[in-house]
Amino acid sequence: MTGEPLGEGDWQKEPDTKPERLLSLTLALLSNSVGLSKEELFRSVRGYSLAIEDGVKPDAINKMFERDKQSLRDMGVQVETFIRDSDMDDNTESRYFIPAETFVWPKGTSLTPNQLRLLELAAKVWARASFSAEASRAVMRLKALGMASEGLELAGFAPRILTNEPGILQLEEAARDRLEVTFDYRAPERSVERRVVHPWQVRHVAGQWLLVCWDVERQDVRNFMLKRIVSRIKPTGEQFEAITQAQLEDALERLRLFTLQNTAVVSVVPGTEAWVHFEMDSHAHGGSTTYEFNFMDVHLLAEQLRVFGATVTVHAPSELRDAIRSGLEKVANAHA
Amino acid sequence: MPKLKNVLSGDDQFNFLIALIGLIHREGEIHITAAAERLGMSVEAVRKAMSTLVVAGHRKPSGAEEIPFNFDWDLFDEEQVLRFSDSDIILDAPRISTRQAAAIAAGLSYLKSLPEFASEADVDSLIALLASTQPTASPPTIFFEVGTVGADVGLLRRAILAELQISCSYTNQRGEESVRSLEPFRLDPRGAVWYLKAYCPISRQIKSFRLDRMRQIVLGENPWSEAARQAFAEFDQEEDRLYVPGESDTDVIVEVDPEAYELVSEFTTISEPNSSSSGVIRVTIKVGHLPNLGHLIAKYGGAARVISPPVARELVRNYALSALGQKSNDFQRIEDED
Q1: pTM of the prediction?
Q2: Are B320 and A128 a contacting pair at CB < 8 A?
Q3: Which domains does chain B have, with CATH numbers?
């Protein structure tokens, strides 16, 4: 939320009648128990009937309707279709309706001022990052469920989620719609590879956004770091079966076990920034300068350790030492 | 940054309309000012929404026109209170979309990872509420995993709320440890890294300090100084970037691959690359203290490159060579606290 109320005239800046049309469409589909065919809809919703009168081509009206359905869906209004039994043989025209029970919150749903405060803060953590629009819209809607809150602003605290990966919205959408997607992935020290995956969850782990997914070609669970996706994310047109919580838990457990297998041993020069850093990370070391810890990804760790320059020495594993060294060599060469 | 906060898209207007419908149904009647405040909109925007509501109708297949919403206009004219009259359709607050729910739930899971909210039962109840209204029982499509946070956060929060100074030992990037007096203003958790925004009496400005470089934090007895109060009053609360540009900043042109986009994200809007070759972007970033570039750039192991000025390229090269042990440790690093 911007916090700033909208001023006069803002409502009119978009000249089309889309909000009105979306509302009329919602009302028409809600109030009709036998659903409406597309033709009936176009006649009963003024936005469409006026467009038809204005001579807009059927193709364009159809496209408008498809976009409107998507908009409704983005706002939480589920338009469903069915084919009437009596139409089965000769006429297979779809009829559209909105089931009333999916439309409104379950009876008695309400929110306390404290819950509203938390929701607003949860929306705010997205700030300018991906999902900020969705989160703000959700909060506006949820406010209708709650009691007025006053003076519950959180002073002196501005938590923010950071997303620097442009593909995050698309991957979340693909996960939600169970769409198989393909993208180019550049694993460190390897050439770019095209991957085909079933996205399960976009997950923030240890400072990184990961895509937890099923790799169609490898026929196995894989985790991809979003920042290593180097192409557009394209749907293949295939859909996949919904996954269960247990499947996801299995995948995450494997990631945890994998992390536990990776142990790094480093030593740091006392009194340096690195020394402070590691003492913060592992409280139990009592003045020692050698640290041992688990890590998820050797190249990610190399990135974190390069920041400390020569004040950190890696004892194990050798892959980590090599990754730090080869990265520094690339930097030196690129700036020769 | 692109900000369209004064123009609502058609979708946003529709979202506002159904929020308003839900609010009026829930409340029975509500003053227009209260409705505007609740939904974070202007009174004028509510008026416009009302006029859209009363024309949003549809024709029944029979041909009869149906306008489901009408207001009790007498009540509105006299007291500016919104109440539906004779609406055919009882429309309680409509549910939010899967994506809206996912965005909020992820925000909540992030809050839950912060000590301030770890024990808030309401966070869990809200996550459960959001999940319960979704059509399928599939796991959430976006999730923020709980990380670890330094123990001093609670102390700093107390100092901020009580408007007190603190002292701490701060280690800069050269490994120089010094005892500092700071006037803490705001905690800025950014992903996994925590920063404290505080007024620094030495440089007489607000700066960001990394919590993982602070130790032995002690709550002082002195309240914020006048100078600090003034600096806080002038600070734009909506400004949530860590880096506050200064007049003596140097413009540095860098080239980054997708792996290093985070380096430039505060300076540009990034869109999806078309292909692996087109993902390289050039951005001018502001650097307060040039020697900091060494580790900032070297971190990415080649995925970020300085194009100009030449002195910056030289600094980065020297940093890399010295980290490789091929050059004596003669580079200068100064704390990057802004």
Answers
A1: 0.77
A2: no
A3: 10-82 (1.10.10), 96-147 (no CATH), 153-234 (2.30.30), 250-323 (no CATH)
